[in-house]
Amino acid sequence: MRRLLPFIFFAFSLSNCYPQLLNNSLFRIYRAEFIHGAVTQLRFDNDSTYQMSIAEIHCSLCDHEMLDSLISSQGIWLQQYDTIYLQSQDREIIKMLFINDSLLKPLSPFGFNMEHLNDSTRNRIIERFNALPGEEFHLIYDTYPNGVARFIFDKFRMMRSEYEIELKSNGSVKAVRYYFEGKQSKRIR
Predict the structure, then answer these.
(1) Is 38 exposed, middle or buried (0-12, 13-18, 19+ CB in 10 A)?
(2) Closest Cα partner for 39 from 158, 132, 149?
(3) 61-to-42, 134, 173 alpha-carbon distances in Å
(4) What is the pLDDT of residues 78-103, one digit of tens each?
(5) What is the mean pLDDT of the chain?
(6) For the chain, which end, N or C, has fewer CB atoms within 10 Å of the first or last residue's CB respectively?
(7) pTM for the structure as a whole
């Protein structure tokens, strides 16, 4: 047994320990609660394309067209270990950290051109960005390989009542869980 232990450790260190984002899903949709004052949705398809769009705008004084052009994009995505790279035709590459299946964290703020900034200013912007809540992308919709919904989450938002729906591969409901103010409840309020 002791002879097998180093071999198992070596084999484990060579393998990719991070699961692929769309391991056995047709597509997934993630949502970030507050990017530039807007609820942003990010859809990953298994043909390596993505689409980022605005679902809601919470900023009444913002220029909605400029905000849409700043956030909305589509292109291709690639995952290497724990980093996801988003590349659109007209923008720089966006890097996101793959924390787990239900959580993605951008590594830098969207919509800021930081090429002309010095290193100390760039580092302060990134530190403040990492400290702010609401910039993470949470899984809200997952599918089976045939396109039928697997999970539907209406959580991770600034509302008091939330729910999760888990479905079977034939489309029938397997489980429904309700939450109120972050705690599980027996019914929706």
Answers:
(1) buried
(2) 158
(3) 24, 20, 42
(4) 988 889 999 988 777 888 888 888 88
(5) 79
(6) N
(7) 0.77
Per-residue confidence (pLDDT) for residue 5, from 0 to 100: 40
56 neighbors 36 (Cβ within 8 angstroms): no
CB 28 within 8 A of CB 141: yes
Burial 67-97 (b: 16+ CB within 10 A, else e): beebbebebebebeeeebebebeeeeebebe
Bridge partners of 85, per DSSP, are 78, 95
Q: What is the dihedral of CA 180, 181, 184, 188, to 10 degrees?
A: 10
> What band does 17 get if pLDDT is binned at 50, 70 and 90?
very low
**What pLDDT does residue 156 have?**
63
Report the 10 Å Cβ neighbour count for 143: 20
Q: Which residues, other chains included, contact 94 with Cβ-Cβ below 8 Å and sequence gap of 6+?
A: 85, 86, 87, 106, 108, 110
pLDDT band at 116 (very low <50, low <70, confident <90, very high): confident
Please tell me the distance from the alpha carbon of residue 29 to that of residue 53, in angstroms, as a whole number.
11
Domains of the chain, earliest start first = 24-185 (2.40.128.640)
**So what's the pLDDT on residue 171?**
84
Length of the chain: 189
Contact 145, 113 (CB under 8 A): no
